[in-house]
Amino acid sequence: MTRRQGSGQASDLVQRLLAGDRWALTRVLTFVENGYPEGRQALGELFSHTGRAHIVGITGPTGCGKSTLAGALAREYRRRGAKVGIVAVDPTSPFSHGALLGDRIRMQDLTSDPGVFIRSMATRGALGGLAVATNDVVTVLDAAGEDVVLVETVGAGQDEVEIADTAHTTVVINIPGAGDDMQAIKAGILEIADILVVNKADQPAAESVYKQLHIFMDLARNEGWEVPILKTAAHKEQGIVELLEAVSRHRAYLTESGRLEEMRRHRARRQLLSVAQRMLLEGVLAQARENGRLEELVEAIAARELDPHTAAARLIGGAAQ
Ligand SMILES: Nc1nc2c(ncn2[C@@H]2O[C@H](COP(=O)(O)OP(=O)(O)OP(=O)(O)O)[C@@H](O)[C@H]2O)c(=O)[nH]1
Ligand SMILES: [Mg+2]
């Protein structure tokens, strides 16, 4: 590892990244994902170059076809000359190299295309969680000049809802499932959908999912954007043009309605708070680890001598002194 080569490194890397150097991009992403100081410095330098990419979240249950759909969508964007970044997030199985390899194989033709950049993320940073690292990775890809960044996440849990907050357009995928048609409704992720997709529409049971979604969405509130429900067969690249066009329409809606501006402010606030939170926590923990206070308090809680709230208050109080 060469992470201690001095503070000039990030600047040089950033210059190369901005000039389109893919090696530099990969390197910066590694620094950023691991929370290294060089990563933070690079993010600072890159920030003024961000805000151009359209960020599309693709979420849905395991195996619903997110990677296949992302690949098909990326190919369609490439046909239209757009540069595409793909971020595949796998929070459930940090060591599932098999799954990542599977993704790679499905996207093999894309990996040889210089207009496509694919990043798989299966690591959760020590602090701040996967969502923070993902946001930073998306920021870097935005600065690197991707026109569209597709972020694939399994639709379950808080991280995914936070990642949906990062996306301008969130595509929620549903599939015909054995006796469990409406997995997405159960998981509560329909609420974050800007576009609903019934993938695996080549399977007969897809029709009933499609109908149920229509019934459900007719009951849902509509705030200026009517959520389209589309059918796709991603493995055959069917319905992909319609999906891309729905994404473009949603983007136009965001711009014209002023929602994009609102999102920018919302995101700025969230980023500020989440980074501040991480910094505070890092500061407190670094000191408490060093002086042994952290372990003392852990022991005290485990021994039932202190409750976690009192212990946390002491931890923070101690660090502030
Ligand atoms: N029949 C059918 N199969 C599909 C379709 N789209 C994807 N598949 C298949 O479904 C399987 C899972 O696809 P993936 O793209 O890996 O799904 P995923 O949601 O990315 O999976 P995870 O990342 O593991 O959650 C693969 O075998 C695909 O070939 C489709 O429209 N119809
Ligand atoms: Mg996948």
Describe this structure in words.
The protein is of the alpha/beta class and 321 residues long. The chain has three domains: 13-49, no CATH class; 51-257, Rossmann fold; 270-320, no CATH class. It is 55% helix and 12% strand. The protein is built from 14 helices and seven strands. The longest helix has 32 residues, at 259-290. Magnesium ion binds next to helix 4.
Trace the largest sheet across and list its strands: 3-2-4-1-5-6-7
Order of helices and strands: HHHEHEHHEHEHEHEHEHHHH
Bound molecules: guanosine-5'-triphosphate, magnesium ion
Overall domain count:
3
β-strand percent reads 5-15%
Superfamily (CATH H level) name of the largest domain: P-loop containing nucleotide triphosphate hydrolases
Biggest β-sheet, characterized? Answer: 7 strands, parallel
Q: Write down the overall geometry.
A: globular
Low-confidence stretches: 1-6, 93-99
- Rg (CA only): 21 Å
The N- to C-terminal Cα distance equals 35 Å
Number of helices: 14
Number of strands: 7
Question: Helicity, in percent?
Answer: 55-70%
Helix/strand-derived category reads alpha/beta
CATH class of the largest domain: Alpha Beta
